[in-house]
Amino acid sequence: MRKGQVMKQHMALILMQLLSKKRQRKLTVAEFLEQAEVSRTTFYYHFPNGMCGLFRWTLEQEVLALVRQAICAGHWEEGCHEMVQFIMRYPEFCLNLYRFSDEMLRCAFFESFTTAVFKQVLEKYRPHYTDSELKDFEIFYSGALINQIDRWFEGNLKESGEAVDVRVCFNLRQIERLMK
């Protein structure tokens, strides 16, 4: 494994440890660097976008990789389960990231997840719809899925993850039914 990858993994591990302990008001770069025992130069070398870059990279490594694997294997429902399970395993970490993340970057992250799900769900209907129609379905239903995830976070994850998982998967199955 490359040295740079090891450093990124070290920083992601420290981030998860720091944000998993308790709900925090903020996490500054200085606080993070002290805990991670990493220089500011090294941090920004690996994450030029600062903490938001570290947040995204950590999520990419920890959850989106598993989600994408499941979806690429044709198991979109399993991909959704992976995301919900991750949030349920690390609620404080996820809530802290949600609060600390720049809203536009957070939306971009959610969109990357939901787009992957909907591309998989809609791919089998390609012969029946134009590219433009499929893109419209993708945008519309991705927004609905993002709204579900967002509402769960806005409610401090008080609703059970199982209920969110059931609702999301039910709605995705309904979309498939409508598409037929």
Fold blueprint:
Blueprint: H1 3-21, H2 29-36, H3 40-46, H4 51-72, H5 76-89, H6 91-100, H7 103-123, H8 131-154, H9 161-179
Describe the structure concisely.
With 180 residues, the chain is mainly alpha-helical.
Main attributes of the structure:
180 residues; mainly alpha; 2 domains; 9 helices
Strand residue content: under 5%
- The total count of helices amounts to 9
Order of helices and strands: HHHHHHHHH
Identify the overall geometry.
Answer: elongated
Q: Any idea how many domains?
A: 2
Low-confidence region ranges:
none
Mean pLDDT: 86
The amount of helix comes to over 70%
For the largest beta-sheet, the strand count, sense and barrel status come to: none
Describe the structure.
The radius of gyration is 18 Å and the shape is elongated. The protein has helices at residues 3-21, 29-36, 40-46, 51-72, 76-89, 91-100, 103-123, 131-154, 161-179. The termini are far apart. 23% of the residues are buried. The mean pLDDT is 86. The longest helix has 24 residues, at 131-154. It folds into two domains: 3-46; 51-179. The chain contains nine helices and no strands. By secondary structure, the chain is mainly α. α7 crosses α8. It comes from Latilactobacillus sakei subsp. sakei (strain 23K). This is Transcriptional regulator TetR C-terminal Firmicutes type domain-containing protein. Residues 75-162 form the Transcriptional regulator TetR C-terminal Firmicutes type domain. InterPro entries: Homeodomain-like_sf (IPR009057), TetR_C_Firmicutes (IPR039532). It holds the Pfam family TetR_C_8.
